[in-house]
Write a structure and sequence with these properties.
Layout lengths: L9 E4 L5 H7 L1 H7 L2 E4 L6 H10 L4 E5 L2 E5 L1 H6 L1
Parallel strand pairs: 1-2
Antiparallel strand pairs: 3-4
Length: about 80
């Protein structure tokens, strides 16, 4: 029987403004697995979400015109 890999490598989140709360609720998984996160964020929750993810070691990228562009909070807030 083949060995099953139970690790989590990707998480997609699209929850209409509750992104920060979802991330906090699954923070034990994120800290243990360090998965790739795809988050469609709401501007009202963005700043707390961004600061928390940066603090635990994530980087922010935006997907635009078929490219991943490294971002920072100041550039994102302007767009």
């Amino acid at each position: 029987m083949p060995k099953i890999n139970n690790s989590i490598s990707i998480i997609k989140i699209d929850v209409e403004g509750a992104e920060y709360f979802v991330i906090k609720a699954i923070s034990h998984i994120i800290k243990r697995e360090y998965p790739l996160l795809f988050i469609e964020f709401n501007s009202s929750s963005f700043e707390n979400l961004y600061k928390y993810l940066i603090r635990i070691g994530y980087m922010s990228f935006v997907y635009k015109k078929n490219k991943l562009i490294k971002n920072d909070i100041n550039r994102i807030k302007k767009n």
